[in-house]
Write a structure and sequence with these properties.
The structure is a single chain. With 238 residues, the protein is α+β, with helices and mostly antiparallel strands. It has 8 helices and 7 strands, in the order H-E-H-H-E-E-E-E-H-H-E-H-H-H-E. The strands form 3 sheets. Strands 2-3-4 form a 3-stranded antiparallel sheet, covered by helices on one side. A two-stranded antiparallel sheet has the order 1-7. Strands 5-6 form a two-stranded antiparallel sheet. A hairpin with a 4-residue loop joins strand 2 and strand 3. Helix 2 packs across helix 7.
């Protein structure tokens, strides 16, 4: 009986982890599920610690574990979880996990419609706070469990147009913003939420850029939810 009850708790967490961050895909996040407090994004941005960027020395993707680890234990990898959350008209191969096609309607970064087909590189899953940026703003000092959690947290992930994402690279708010200006408040609020949740710091230029964007939408709420900040112990990283 205790095991059954424990399983039920896990099931609730899994559903919340993916569904609770849906507002990241919608323009103008105010009022969506998973957001907290009127004006909370600007207040949270102002509270972020400011430091200089640490050296990138030692960074590699492997420091954050294998790509798209199933840290929420729902038997689907993280990439498919986010495709399922963010795409419309989703179709699957062999069950309800492996996404074979769907549509970004619209892509949050460019505002255009993008068709996803598995095996074609038209849709990326973006880390809103890039992993190399996270490495240089605190993550290099974490244990592997926390880095793996960040890399697979739905709060930090978004399906986007591949070309726009590759233009972003590992840029922060001071160096890159979505071409679609109507999405910028939502985008910056999400970056603030991730940095606050994980205790990452920002550079002075990054904080100024965040506050400049959010000053134009003072009622912007702060996304919340996602996964715990430590991955299960069975996941390893270098």
């Amino acid at each position: 009986m205790a095991r059954l009850r424990g399983g039920a708790v896990v099931a609730v967490v899994v559903v919340f982890a993916v569904a609770g961050c849906k507002d990241l895909q919608d323009k103008g996040a105010s009022g969506e599920p998973g957001a907290t407090g009127g004006g909370a994004a600007l207040t949270a941005a102002d509270s972020l610690t400011v430091k200089g960027r640490a050296p990138k020395t030692g960074y590699s993707r492997e420091r954050f574990g294998s790509a798209w680890a199933d840290t929420d234990s729902n038997s689907c990898d993280t990439r498919d979880d986010i495709l399922k959350r963010d795409l419309k008209d989703v179709k699957y191969t062999g069950g309800d996990c492996k996404v074979s096609s769907g549509v970004l309607e619209p892509d949050p970064y460019s505002g255009k419609e993008v068709t996803y087909k598995r095996g074609r590189s038209l849709v990326d899953i973006d880390h809103l706070v890039a992993l190399s940026d996270a490495w240089q703003t605190g993550a290099k000092y974490w244990d592997a469990s926390k880095r793996i959690a960040l890399a697979n947290d739905p709060l930090n992930l978004l399906a986007v147009d591949a070309s726009a994402n590759r233009g972003k690279g590992d840029g922060d708010t001071a160096t890159w913003l979505p071409p679609d200006k109507s999405y910028r408040c939502t985008y910056v609020a999400a970056q603030v939420a991730v940095k606050k949740k994980y205790g990452l710091w920002v550079t002075a230029a990054e904080k100024a850029a965040m506050k400049k964007v959010l000053a134009a939408c003072p009622g912007q709420k702060l996304p919340s939810g996602g996964n715990p900040t430590n991955a299960p112990s069975r996941f390893k990283a270098r």
